[in-house]
Amino acid sequence: MKIKASIIKHQWPFFNKSSAVNPYPLSDYTSLIFFSVILGIASGLTAVGLHEFIHLMNNLFFPSEFNFSGSLPLPYWVIAIPALGMFFQWLMSHQFPQQAKQKGVVEVIKAVFFRQGFISLKSTIFHFLVPAICMGTGGTVGPEAPAAKSGAGIVSALGQLFRLKGDKLRIFTAAGAGAAIAGVFNTPLAGVFFGIEVVLLNDLHASALTAFILSSVSASAVSRTFLGNQPKFIFNQLILGSYSTFIFYLLLGIGAGLLSVAFIRTSESVQKGFVNLYQKKVNPLFIMLIIGLLMGGAGWWIPDIFGIGYSCINKILAQGFNSPTVLILFILKFFLVILILRSGGFGGIFAPSMFLGACYGYLFSQSLNLLFHLHLDPTTYTLVGMGSMLAGINSVPITSILILFEMTNNYHFILPLMLGTVGSHLISHIALHGSIYLRELKREGYSYVFSRDIHVLRSIKVQDAVRADILLLPESAPSSEVIKKFLDSQHDTIYVVNDENKITGVIKSKTLRYVLAEYEQLHHLLLASDIAEPDVVYLRSEDNLEEAMKIFAHHQLEEIPVLDSADPRRIIGTLHYQDVLNAYNQLLNRLNLAEGLASEFKAIQEDALQEVIPGFSLAEVDIPEAFIGKSLAKLQLRNKYRIDVLMVEEGDQSIFTGQEEGKKQVMPDKNYVLKRGARLIIYGRTLDVVNFKKIAEKS
User: Fold this and answer.
1) Residue 529 pLDDT
2) 117 is in which domain, residue-wise?
3) Global confidence as pTM
């Protein structure tokens, strides 16, 4: 699969010049607080609106006179309601295919990492309305994915209206998703960690945390104002059991982890099946209508399967079902959620995860009580099961703990909950090597690495670290010449070339031991081609050091010959393993220096110096007119002026405020061409920096 892009851990600087300059007469920290609260309120209102719209749709399609208690059968035409909902979803997807593709939390992650936090307003409206229709017509999915997408989208739109750009818009878009979760579930702390664990992929920085906390608290306050502050889940007193029984909570978590793996893999298999069907020209509407009828039939049989399922969870907590019914509910939920979402329906999996966990926890406790005559409390195990399945399916252990704590307003079962969620998360993570969201990104052609090491290696070309010094011998060279070459040089490797100057073999110094043992008898017969090992691994000049490191590791080599990418017959040198490490460390040190100083750039006044260490200074200067349009390689600033360019700040000046807008920091390579309006961040000996500043000022 071709990798389209890589999600690398980003820095989230809110206070340096790499972010868009604040166009308002507020300090950066004040504007952070102000916008966090304002945008959090907007996200909270969006979550409340989604909640009310789902409720409106539900009342429209399932009038209050319907008897959902199960004492009387529902009318048969209820079976058609979810099918009608699936038809509406297909119709909207058919009319707005581009928006339909931008589905769920994964799109928020992509917007934050790849699109500067931009989410189109049309996509936001689509994912506000369509999932609500799905849930309002009985679709047994959750509201969190549409809430996160809608909240992030509204914040993105408002952020653009407020002229927020760059990392600021990224942060607030991510915070908007977390705030919407806080609003829709009335869980401010869980909203914060949803943003961190899911949207930011566990990449946390101080300014992002501030925005997340303030936005989530604001959204939750809005939610409580309009929707009240009653806990979603109601239950009687919990009985945790003695500490000797706590092992069962861990076992519950391990089982939940295995079920989570089964859920995710089943979901992926079903998706592949639907993709194959749709590629064979099977009409998606036909499939979606069938699934809608299955949903309707299940709801007619057991009405509690309709919708999000909070009321059904409360019945399980109150032990209002017998075990066979709970098992049926589990099986129906497990497959219907997958079928609805993978066939083309819209919704989330947080609420279904908790529903599945409630069923599983209840069945787990009842089974042990029956088999081993224990006295485990089904209510406690139901709650722990909810958190465990939530953590296992979504890879959000902290969010799972907090969301159960906040949705129940009860912290007494926190230790059992931690045991269950950690056990489930570990099993799921070990089995799947990543969350359901990362797996979705990988299927779409994106990869993710957990540090910037790969990014650094990818940014360096082999040609930038190659040694031009290489030993070459023709295939016809006698063995005596091979030995002489080794004795006269410091090289451990000789490369054998044919008449076309193409490498056909490699001779390593250790190979000579075998030659010398038979030298007297064979020296007049052996040629370089006879001694050489024929399997030669090589790199091209345009390859990057990540690819080189993979080859070094796989073949256990110390050096690799490098061919010219433009002319593969031309050998330009060798790349040594130590050279890769040196190039990596040099660039990493430079990045560390640049990033460490980035937060200090605000202290550098116009045309002022800042001494970093005694005798060495940093300065921000305009680009001399004569330098514009030329590359750093051509200018050779280090050789001519003895200064290093750490960073280039690009940006345009506003005709209204005189401030630079859209400013961004660029880590230039030697091929970077200087542009008008940009400024250089230079570093070197203080005297050299001063001299270069004078040159820049004269121009």
Assistant:
1) 73
2) 5-227
3) 0.68
